[in-house]
Specification:
The structure holds 2 protein chains of 2 kinds. Chain A is mainly alpha-helical. Chain A has helices spanning 3-29, 38-50, 59-90, 92-107, 110-121, 125-149, 153-161, 166-203, 209-218, 222-251. The longest helix of chain B has 25 residues, at 246-270. Chain B is α/β, with parallel strands linked by helices. Classes of the chains: A mainly alpha, B alpha/beta. The interface between A and B is medium-sized, with 20 and 27 residues.
Chain lengths: 262, 271
């Protein structure tokens, strides 16, 4: 067996062991309102996917709403974070003024930020956008700033001796050096965004996966709360592995040790 | 970078006259002299070498010629690089101590990066890339990425990149000093081979007198702190040369002796 096959089998085995443990604990407790069995959850998940939910909205509608919010707010937070990070790298004034504020933003508990955003801007799209930007943008900015600081000056000198113009410098020298930092910020920030959006929906923004957590939580329906949580996790893992890992692989094919990690 | 058209300069490519460079000391703010009244001339097709101890300011001189460092004309001296092609500005090729390749671009794209920067017409790129890669012994590596190549091969790509723009002057800053001696020796032979097939104009910096004597037509010996040129020798040994050729060997021995006597004298007077 190759190393990769072994690793994959161990991973699958580990999940399987967890499911079996869960199953026996649930049977021992025999209280489906607190801990339903995985099999019951699996049935509930199928039900969620094939039957229309409350107000006649399907599961895919809610997933779409959450995905839409996630992508839009993530895009805004990334663009702002990259712009601020670059400005910090280029101008000392920006670096010092932003650096004074960053610890404030990074130590602020995420849940409080979401809470404040929703209080100030209401249970609306703006509320979730402000929450995401408030939490994610400082993190992205710091990451990009570090990338800008780590830029290899000797390559810039090389490019200048060959008379590369500004456009060539940016495209072929600056951006490729920043890409690893952009990607690491990208992955982490996407995970954060997704959770913040779900949290904001749980607090009361209408529709979306988080909205459904809360809906079933209020009905004391543990089976459907868990079914939604697992659907949420699966959707996120698929995105992370199927989409981002591949984009990253394509962007870094020049690295000799770059094997596709899924 | 100082520029001028070639008219009326004969074969001169680089002309440095009494160039002085001062740096402010970062601690005291006081200025100290890095380069002291440097004069040298490199003519078309010449291989000139500056030999001096490490840290004597040789790289500073190359950087000034390449335009990545400046010199203050009020410190005295002039520096001119003349173009011998119809390009608007003289083309300068630079081979650094490290290859300085863009690791995210293929070997070919690293070369076209230089060609595009120099505004060389796109229809010439393919031919230039192939020709100079072959010249440095890397034919077939066009689509490979630098990090898949050994240090010596990366430096060959850097040489091919600098040659591909067909520079008026090729600056080389201890290009083999980061390689192991066996690879470096092979690279010197291969550079000699290149010199015999095409005759680029080269200004080559080294701390290795043997390397300079083996490769160069003109040797400028430089002292340190401040850097002054104290001797200019013409090496009249036809290529291909062999390092164990008695003529080369004797000249090296003689120059090493002279070097140490100058450095010792300088030390005695300086301390």
């Amino acid at each position: 067996m190759s190393e990769k096959v072994t690793a994959v089998s161990i991973r699958i085995g580990s999940i399987f062991v967890l499911l079996i443990l869960w199953h026996f604990v649930a049977i021992a407790m025999s209280d489906a309102e607190i801990l339903p069995t995985p099999i019951a959850i699996a049935y509930a998940m199928v039900g969620v996917l094939v039957e229309p939910g409350p107000e006649g909205k399907s599961a895919f509608f809610h997933m779409g709403v959450t995905l839409g919010r996630t992508f839009v707010t993530f895009g805004v937070a990334m663009v702002l974070g990259i712009a601020i990070g670059l400005a910090m790298g280029l101008k000392k004034v920006v670096e010092h003024s932003v650096m004074a504020l960053i610890p404030l933003a990074l130590t602020m508990p995420t849940i409080l930020m979401v809470f404040l955003a929703v209080m100030w801007f209401g249970f609306s799209e703006i509320g979730s956008l402000v929450a995401v930007v408030g939490v994610v943008t400082p993190y992205v900015a710091v990451n990009i700033f570090q990338g800008a600081k780590a830029m290899d000056k000797s390559l810039i000198d090389m490019a200048i001796t060959f008379r590369a113009d500004r456009n060539m410098l940016i495209r072929k020298v600056y951006i490729p050096q920043l890409l690893p930092y952009i990607f690491s910020a990208f992955r982490f920030a996407f995970g954060m965004t997704w959770k913040i959006v779900a949290l904001a929906e749980t607090f009361g923004i209408k529709y979306g996966i988080g909205y459904m957590f809360f809906f079933w939580f209020e009905q004391f329906n543990m089976e459907l709360v868990l079914a939604w949580i697992i659907l949420f996790v699966i959707l996120m893992l698929v995105l992370e592995h199927a989409v981002f890992a591949r984009i990253e692989h394509a962007a870094f094919k020049w690295r000799p040790a770059n094997k596709l990690q899924t | 970078m100082p520029t001028d058209q070639n008219n009326g300069h004969g074969n001169v490519v680089v002309s440095v006259n009494n160039l002085t460079k001062k740096f402010p000391d970062p601690m005291t703010g006081e200025e100290f002299v890095v380069l002291d009244s440097i004069s040298l001339t490199v003519e078309k097709g010449n291989f000139a070498s500056i030999v001096g101890p490490s840290g004597c300011g040789k790289s500073t001189l190359l950087n000034i010629i390449a335009g990545i460092e400046t010199h203050d004309p009020s410190d005295g001296g002039t520096l001119d690089v003349y173009s011998h092609t119809d390009a608007e500005q003289p083309r300068v090729g630079y081979v650094f101590q490290n290859a300085r390749l863009l690791n995210w671009l293929t070997v070919e794209d690293n070369m076209t990066f230089a060609l595009e920067s120099q505004k060389i017409p796109k229809d010439l790129w393919k031919e230039r890339v192939n020709k100079y890669l072959e010249m440095v012994g890397l034919e077939g590596q066009q689509k490979n990425y630098p990090l898949n190549l050994s240090g010596g091969m990366q430096q060959r790509v850097a040489i091919a990149r600098a040659l591909a723009i067909e520079p008026d002057i090729l600056l080389m800053d201890e290009p083999f000093s980061h390689l192991d001696e066996i690879t470096a020796r092979k690279m010197r032979f291969d550079l000699m081979e290149i010199l015999m097939h095409s005759s680029p104009t080269i200004l080559f910096i080294t701390h290795d007198l043997g390397e300079a004597v083996f490769l160069a037509d003109h040797i400028y010996m430089m002292s340190t702190k401040p850097a002054r040129i104290f001797k200019h020798i013409k090496v009249d040994v036809p290529r291909p040369r062999k390092p164990e050729d008695p003529q080369i060997f004797d000249l090296e021995k003689e120059l090493v002796k002279e070097f140490f006597s100058v450095l010792d004298a300088q030390e005695a007077e300086g301390d």
